[in-house]
Design goal:
It is a single chain. The relative contact order is 0.20. Helix 3 (157-170) packs parallel to helix 4. The strands form two sheets. The protein has a six-stranded parallel β-sheet. A two-stranded antiparallel ribbon has the order 3-4. The two termini are 16 Å apart. The chain has four helices and eight strands. The chain has a single domain, classed as 3-Layer(aba) Sandwich (Rossmann fold). It is an alpha/beta fold and 213 residues long.
Amino acid sequence: MRETITPGDDDVLIVVDIQNDFCPGGALAVPRGNEVVTIVNRVAGMFRNVVLTQDWHPRGHFSFASAHPGKNAYDTIAAFYGPQVLWPDHCVQETSGAAFHSALHIPHASLVVRKGHDRAIDSYSAFYENDRKTPTGLAGYLRERGIRRAFLAGLAFDFCVRYSAEDARREGFAAFVIEDACRGIDIGGSVAATHAGLAALGVRCVAAAEFGS
């Protein structure tokens, strides 16, 4: 029988990109992405510390397939920082697609981290842009508040959640992914690769039920 997880003052829940464009009907819909909202709302109510992330792209962003004539969505190109998957235009600043899902209700969240706002570089992680050098400032924010454990949920499991969890661990936080509070895209085996990558860094996948009622 698994031990119940009781969040404390040194724990944070990082809610990743639960935005309209990543939910059914959105420009880059994660299959069944909307299903995580109720779960995340329930778990978030148990945390004193909650951070939200929000994809926030300018029009014509480098990661959009539309910015590369002759390329299609989900092609991969070489960027100066490594391989870059090209995406449909999504989460464009000040559009309804970039807004949080209307049913997401976490009024006590203390911070929104916007990422992907530099036109020339994509940003999956809540901690670093994809050059792996440019920080968002989140690690310092969490350290100043005495955070030791980071729990992550949201969209998509195999991209932004994965990168955020791995970076949380690399930054010295104990990191956990609430797997049933995530949904994946699964491009070229990316879900399996995520499980392997998380395990290699000691990031544990847990279930929402472990937080009790």
